[in-house]
Write the C-alpha cells for this entry.
Amino acid sequence: MWSAAQPVYERILRHPFLLGLADGTLPRNRFEFYLVEDSKYLRAFGEALRIVAAKAPRAEWRRTLERHADEAIEVEREMQESLLKGIPARQRQGLAAPSNYAYTNHLLATAARGSFSDGLAALLPCYWIYWEVGKGLQRRGSRNKDYQRWIDQYADPAYGTVVREVLGMMDTEAQSMDRAAHGRAIELFLTGSRYEYMFWDMAWRLEQWAPDLH
C-alpha cells in the first residue's frame, strides 16, 4: 500500500500548504478554511468508521474502531472550542467544499457497499498519512503556535499507537485476502491518498463550488 502511494506522499510533503505550516508562513485564512473543512470531514469519517466497525470479523476490532469514531468526534469538539472559536458559525455550517464532499462520500460509499477490508483500506490513508506528515513536520517545527499545536497532535506517540492498531488489522486481513481483494485494497488506499493531497490543495486554493450563486 505504502509503496503504491509513495509518489503521492512525496508530493504531499512538498505542497505549499504543509510547507507553510512548517515555516509559519501559511496565510491564516487558508488554515481556517482547512479547519472548517476538517471539522466537517471528521463527522463523516466517524460515521464511516462505525459502518466499518459493524462489519469487523473480531469483536475487539469492532470496539477499537468504535472508540476511534468517538475520538474523531472529540477532536472535532476540541477544535470547535479552541482553534475554530474565532470563526463565525455561518462559515462552519453548510455544504462541504467540492473535494471534501467527494472524499467523504467516497469513504461512506466504500464503507457501506464494500467488505470490511475495503472500508479499512479506504479509511487507512487518513490515519497513516497524517501520522507520517506529523512526524515529518515536527522535525522541522513551526514558529506559529497554532500550527505547531496541529503538528504536535499528529506526531504524538499516542496517535501513533492508534495508527498502529489499524495497521495491525489491515496486515492481519491481508493474510487471508485473495488476489482480487488485495488489489482492491491497494487501489482504495491509493485513491484515499490522492484525496488527502486534494484536501490540503483544496484549502490552499480556498476551493469553492462553481458556479458561484451569490
